Amino acid sequence: MERKAIFPGTFDPFTIGHFSIVKRALTFMDEVVVSIGINDQKNTYFPLEKRVDIIRKLYRDEPRIKVESYEGLTMDFAQQIGADFIIRGIRTVSDFEYEETIADVNRKMSGIETILLFTEPELTGVSSTIVRELLMYHKDISRFIPEGMEI
Fold first, then answer.
1. Annotated active-site positions, please?
2. Kind plus residue range of the DSSP H or E element containing 89
3. CA–CA gap between residue 85 and residue 130 (Å, rounded)
4. Taking the CA atoms of the chain, what radius of gyration do you get in angstroms?
5. Does the residue 62 lie in any domain?
6. What is the pLDDT of residues 23-64, one digit of tens each?
7. Number of domains in the chain
8. CATH code at 26?
9. DSSP, res 47
């Protein structure tokens, strides 16, 4: 039986921490859909088309990873594409508590299980928020993004 998961991200999910979580998810999933939520209320550094393009380039050599954008609730999109699981990345204990609550809501409303994956300890401080802020001030972000990736 094929196992399909989505890894949702509203902001700019191309940091080394996100990359690490998606790669780890592939060790037990047949397909991972990196899904970019459209949310006009959130402040993103790149427009949607640019975010999707960057992320597709990042995973271009891995055919089991798809990149899609969606509007609305993550659980609705997960059902729409036939995902068996939602993957959520965890950096801190407070992330865990929040995501555990969201996972419970997703399970009750859609029946889709959420898998919470911790990022590696050395990547816990790396977030898309930090990367976006550094970009706005034209700082070097190379240590926060996967090797060989261009933004």
1. 18, 42, 91, 128
2. strand 85-90
3. 28
4. 15
5. yes
6. 999 999 999 999 988 866 666 677 888 888 888 888 899 999
7. 1
8. 3.40.50.620
9. -
Nearest Cα residue to 14 out of 59, 47, 49: 59
Tally of helices (H runs) and strands (E runs) in the chain:
5, 5
The dihedral formed by the CA atoms of 74, 77, 83 and 85, expressed in degrees to the nearest 10: 10
**149 located within any domain:** no
Residue pLDDT, tens place only, 41-50: 666 677 888 8
pLDDT digits (tens, 9 = 90+) for 74-130: 889 999 999 999 998 887 778 888 889 989 988 999 999 999 998 877 777 777 777
Model pLDDT, residue 64: 97
Which residue segment(s) compose the domain that 78 sits in? 4-144
Whether 129 maps to a domain, the answer reads yes
Query: Does residue 150 lie in a domain region?
Result: no
